[in-house]
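Q: Predict the bound structure with iron/sulfur cluster.
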Amino acid sequence: MTKLLSPARSKVLFLGNEAIARGALEAGVAVATGYPGTPSSEVIESLAHVASERNLYVEWSVNEKVALEVAAAASFTGLRSMAVMKQNGVNVASDFLLHLTASGTRGGLVLVSCEDPGALSSVNEGESRYFARMLEMPLLEPSDFQEAKDLTKWAFELSEQIGNVVMLRSVTRMSHASGNVICGKLPVKSRKAHFEYDGSVMDSSRGPMISTPVVAKHLLHQQKLKAVEALFEKSPFNRYFGAAKPELLMITSSACFLYAEEAIEMLGLQKRVGILKLGTTWPLPPKLLEKHLRKTKKILIVEEVMPFLEENVKILAAGLANRIAINTFHGKYDETLPSAGELNPDIVAAALCHILKVKRKTLPANYLSDSQKAAALIPAREQTFCAGCPHRASFWNIHNAIALDGRKGFVCGDIGCYSMAALSPATGYHTMPTLHSMGSGTGLASGFAKLAQFGLDQPILTVCGDSTFYHAVIPALINAQHNRADITFIVLDNAGTAMTGFQPHPGLAISAMKEAVPAVDIAAICSAIGAKVALSDPFDLETTRKILTSFLADKGLLKVLILRQACALSPEKKGKKIFDVKVNELLCLGDACGCNRLCTRVFRCPALTWDRTTKKAVVDEVICAGCGVCASICPQKAIVKTEASL
Amino acid sequence: MGISNFGYPMNKKPGSQTKLKKDVLEQSLCTGCGACVGLCPYQVVYHDRTVQLHDCDLTDGKCYAFCPRTPANYGQIRESLFDISDVTPEIGAVKGYYLSRAADPALRAKSQHGGTVTALLGVAMDEGLINSAIVSSRNEELKEEGRLIEEKSQLSDYAKSKFTVSPTVAAFNQLMGDVVRKVGVVATPCQALALAKMKTVRIKDGDKINPLNLVIGLFCGWTLSVESFHRLLQLYQISPAALTGMDIPPGKNILELYTNESVTSVPMAEVDACVRTACRYCIDSTAEFADLSVGAARFGGDCDEMRGWNQIIVRSYRGKQLLELAVAQGALEIREAPASALQDLKNAAAGKKRKALKNIVEKSRSVKNLLYLSGDDPVVKKYLSMEKKKR
Ligand SMILES: Cc1cc2nc3c(=O)[nH]c(=O)nc-3n(C[C@H](O)[C@H](O)[C@H](O)COP(=O)(O)OP(=O)(O)OC[C@H]3O[C@@H](n4cnc5c(N)ncnc54)[C@H](O)[C@@H]3O)c2cc1C
Ligand code: SF4
Ligand code: SF4
Ligand code: SF4
Ligand code: SF4
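A: Predicted complex:
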């Protein structure tokens, strides 16, 4: 039996995301959907794992909006369901979400957003908390692993109680850390799905699920949210820790609670500083806040990225102005805390020192110089594609084709492992100068391509991964075709959603629950819309380069090149080398004129290293994935590949 | 990311490749000869453009040293390859000057003019002077490139002139260091100069055996830009694949384009517009750095008769030896040229030199800056002062 299905009352070490999954199971979730994105993916993965045992339907949807739609359908039939995504996924889902909060829901529906302050695995520091306020839906934020489970379970109940969607927000340090959780009961009965629609339009439990009449329904929605406020006043997930009359009150939520606790401990300020930890952060319970705001004059609001909590507390405080003396608020607005990036206990401690004018116990005198010395020992490592990564070969080809073409073409980037080409430009051979959201590479390319009449004469290329293709590229591609945009569109098809851990996508014949499903063929879609389509193996440098240069020269139409080669780390490749690769030292020119270290200086597969004493290139056998691409770039044929013996 | 060059010290001196880019490529001086191509992974030819694929930071590199459009002591190169007493200011070293043609009429029929070049390569192979030849061939994209030939019988398949550039020296670069080969190369003047630099310029890494044994130069007024030329063909509705040859018949001021079905005449003014910019700065019309140089015959006879003949300049001992062998073997017919022909040739060659120097000065806006040339070179000095006087 998997850990996720541990019996009630057992104490289990869960990843934050597993705790969320367990909470959903305890709530009797029937349908769970999502789109892969760090740090959210493990919620769906762990549910998929127990899908057949628990009779769940679990799906990796094509994108977050569709994920929420699929989950909402289940809710409309009375089932409990959830949709899971990373922060910017909520943006993708938001148009549907706006209408969903207006129509209301039936079976408990929870939207889980796992966010990434500090953008550890993102290209944005998006905040979905503001959606809770903007779209008027309750927001819950666990601050430890037990709460992650318990709040998730409660979120379903709350959603059913108010007939609307509830949002649960986690962050990387919660989703990806582990802690003990005491399990509750898993339900034995399951619900039957049925969609009732004959009732009155104003009855969201029996009538049609639509957002009209808009104003009347909006008022109803807001009344329900008022009821939520009352529930939140009594919520056990909001707790105060500290003296009755502290000098400073910290108001916080989520993982920041742990930072706040640790900072107090570090500085020994238990008597002087109290913490109000909120598990229900929107709408704020006004009475609870009033009670705590009365405790002291000095308030510090501790949260990551945007001053969401700070703003909401200040708005409440303004309303209470005649009853509580106005407090001094510290937080992001007065720059006590940084307005971007992750927090940690040190940052919170520094804020406390600043406000309370205390000194931190000083570090040993040589701490700084010692740590600098130690840091110098860490070898400088650039972010790069893995050894044997098909993207390296793809960008090598793209670079060469652009250079040969000679008109300073460029690649509009997109989201996936290949974003590295923009984040670490040398890795993409300086070809990819734009990077935004999923699918926007193709949209931008479609726009750049229409600027010829204003003098833009550079060839426009764009790339996207296979998973990204289905997620958001198709509309942009159709736009390009329909508007005669001359772009070279390259699909970096590595057979899976590699960056987030090989979740299947519509191009593969397997579902999240490991069932056989029809694969949707990218080439067929592109041909069907009328694009010129070619397919190549990026490891075949000669063929790929030729297709690309001919595409760049073929003006006035949409061209699609599908570069197909599985990821070096993909399950079917892992550990298996196609070639044994070695450098013949006698032939290697090294840094002499005639080569100047093409392989280690320019191509830069991490398995190729430069031996400073012999002044020759060396293949690190342990790292080498055996793709053999470097053998085709060496001008001396000094890199020798031989069929690997298995 | 922030780390360029990975902890290796950056060279302070500008790299050879950067200098090549600034001094030659960006100045539109690149002739497309191919001398910098195939030496290393960094320079390649694409269509008729020389492209730098990736950056290289080495100094004292071969690319800059071999390029015929980088500064060098050209006087010294001349001295080290030729009898200085043979050198004329207009057309370089002259040991002998004749009209010539291949003895074999079948070969003549397949070649541009008299088939002298192809016949000489054949004799050089027969006599063991060379065992490999580099000639010009069309690739699958209908672009010219150097082709290595090891069988005499195949030579005639690659006869005839292609007036677009053929980066022949790039093919030769592939053979550098080959100890078995003895190579003969057919070269335009810029290519002959590049090959001469490869033989004579000392560079740090130049210790590879140079298998070059013979350079047969072609007279050359200019080469055409591939892109413009293909546009011209399109205008005259000739598919590049159907083109079988081209020539400039004497005195008509036209370019003739041949296909199996037709002959098309293009007025010279239209052709001029297609000439590579780099050729406007070239002072050599007779491949002065070759062992022998071959061009179209220009003598008083009628046009059709002239078409079957070449004029040939013998420049070096090797060239003299080859010509003598060819005549002795009966592979080549030669006859004395009328006295006026040499003078006509010299006048035409001097004209190109003056015009090129004028263009160079116009480009650099100073008589002190002659780009790849130097005012200290006596040949340059002579035509520069003539140009100054004319002004
Ligand atoms: C670009 C160009 C411009 C020329 N301009 C003049 C001129 O202004 N006046 C003049 O008298 N003669 C000129 N010639 C030379 C002339 O066209 C003949 O090549 C020459 O007379 C030799 O004739 P042939 O019958 O002996 O040659 P062939 O026996 O037909 O042999 C010609 C040889 O030249 C090689 N070749 C063809 N094209 C090129 C090229 N682009 N680059 C390098 N090698 C090539 C062929 O592969 C073959 O080996 C020019 C030639 C070229 C290629
Ligand atoms: S590319 Fe080849 S010759 Fe150059 S350093 Fe690497 S192994 Fe040596
Ligand atoms: S074969 Fe070459 S390019 Fe491929 S992983 Fe090994 S060292 Fe890297
Ligand atoms: S010829 Fe030498 S210096 Fe020039 S680009 Fe190549 S390796 Fe660098
Ligand atoms: S003239 Fe020749 S050597 Fe110089 S840059 Fe051009 S192709 Fe290279």
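A: Residues 65 and 201 of chain B are 7 Å apart (CA to CA).
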